[in-house]
Amino acid sequence: MDNVEIKATQLSERVYMLTGMGGNIGVYVGDDGVVMIDAQYKGLADKISAAITEISEQPIKTLVNTHFHADHTDGNAAFARKGVNVVAHDNVRARLAANSDFDAVGLPKMTFKQMHSVDTGDASIKLTHYPNGHTDGDIIVWFPNSNVIHAGDLFFVDRFPFVDLNAGGNVQGYIDNVRAVVQQLDADTQIIPGHGGLSNRDDWIRLVDMMEATRAEVMAMKEQGMTEDEAVESGLSEQWADWSWNFITEERWIRTLYK
Ligand SMILES: [Zn+2]
């Protein structure tokens, strides 16, 4: 953590993207205070706070979690201790509360099921839940008056996505959710992905196109009677090699698709 640098990029008058280690952070500077989306790791909380202070002298008022994974929520408690109100989907709170390693001070105080608006004094940030994709608590964050959204981990840029099958994730749901969101975007929409650089609609469509194409390859192997291990052994076609990365390797992606 000592070597991690938090870098801020301004995307619109009031919206910023922060990168460090873990899920990308979104920042909205409201008239009533700052709203941050995701918190990365607790060891980075001071650096993240400092980076936000550079952007605005307003206090951080609200922290929204896009889902429950630690690389987005581990910093929750550090911000909650400073009086920041943590907001997330109902299932995020339930999963964090069930994890004895999670600092309970950082549990979301405000939760919701379908949709929630965060009032910022000048406008509202809209949070919408999409069921069973990356996890069972994923939300999309719609920043007002800016054509910018935070996609959480429904968006991994040009790499195989993590679909958390043990936490309500589902490949078909992931594809359906992304298709439903991209319909509402235009070519100029700036998308903060969970992992990867600032992206656009076409980048996101490329992800779900890849998911469908690789799934078809794995389903064909399955229909030929191959076991999961045999499918891994056989591998995907060469064109997908670049999507493999250290966390979701080709092997892990094939196993996810096969399941
Ligand atoms: Zn995640």
TrEMBL record:
<comment type="similarity">
    <text>Belongs to the metallo-beta-lactamase superfamily. Class-B beta-lactamase family.</text>
</comment>
<dbReference type="InterPro" id="IPR001279">
    <property type="entry name" value="Metallo-B-lactamas"/>
</dbReference>
<dbReference type="InterPro" id="IPR036866">
    <property type="entry name" value="RibonucZ/Hydroxyglut_hydro"/>
</dbReference>
<dbReference type="InterPro" id="IPR050855">
    <property type="entry name" value="NDM-1-like"/>
</dbReference>
<dbReference type="Pfam" id="PF00753">
    <property type="entry name" value="Lactamase_B"/>
</dbReference>
<dbReference type="GO" id="GO:0017001">
    <property type="term" value="P:antibiotic catabolic process"/>
</dbReference>
<protein>
    <submittedName>
        <fullName>MBL fold metallo-hydrolase</fullName>
    </submittedName>
</protein>
<dbReference type="GO" id="GO:0016787">
    <property type="term" value="F:hydrolase activity"/>
</dbReference>
<feature type="domain" description="Metallo-beta-lactamase">
    <location>
        <begin position="22"/>
        <end position="195"/>
    </location>
</feature>
<keyword id="KW-0378">Hydrolase</keyword>
